[in-house]
Every structure is written in structure tokens, then in C-alpha cells.
Design goal:
A hairpin with a 6-residue loop joins strand 2 and strand 3. A five-stranded mixed β-barrel has the order 1-2-3-5-4. By secondary structure, it is mostly beta strands. The chain has one domain: Nucleic acid-binding proteins (OB fold (Dihydrolipoamide Acetyltransferase, E2P), Beta Barrel), CATH 2.40.50.140.
Length: 88
């Protein structure tokens, strides 16, 4: 069985080694044929804490890592243009 992959945007990186990735699915409505977008949020494992909010990432299905985490970040496609400053 092939592993599922999704392309999404990081919306939260506040947890340690975990990011929340929002994946948008666009499809035509079954009756009205208008394009509808539905967003699903996945918790994904980020081992090196590389991802920041706004990054475009590819996530891959994996074994259950916690109660809600079943995905892992396989690659960062593009980093967000805005840089986050770390308070000193």
C-alpha cells in the first residue's frame, strides 16, 4: 500500500517537534458545480524543529506517534518570507 502524501502550509509551530499543517482541498460542489475549498489540519512530526509558520511543506503518512499525530514532515518546499524574531 502506498503512503499518502499531502501538501500544506504550517499554521502553528508552538509545540516541541510538532507542527500543525493546514491542507486545502478544492473540489466542485456536487449540485451547484461551484468550487468549494475545505481545509483539514494535520499534526505532523518535525524532528529538527525546522518548520516555521507560513512554510510550505510536504507531509507523509506514518505510524501513530501520539494520540493525534499520524503524519511526518518529509520536506520543506519553501520557507516563509517573513522572519520571526526570537525575544532575548
Amino acid at each position: 500500500m502506498a503512503l499518502k502524501e499531502r501538501l500544506g502550509t504550517v499554521v502553528s509551530d508552538k509545540m516541541d517537534k510538532t507542527v500543525v499543517v493546514a491542507v486545502e482541498n478544492r473540489f466542485p460542489h456536487s449540485i451547484y458545480q461551484k468550487i468549494v475549498s475545505r481545509t483539514t489540519r494535520y499534526k505532523a512530526h518535525d524532528a529538527e524543529n525546522n518548520c516555521r509558520v507560513g512554510d510550505r511543506v510536504r507531509i507523509t503518512e506514518t505510524r501513530p506517534l501520539s494520540a493525534t499525530k499520524r503524519w511526518a514532515v518529509s520536506e520543506v518546499i519553501s520557507h516563509s518570507s517573513k522572519t520571526q524574531e526570537v525575544p532575548k
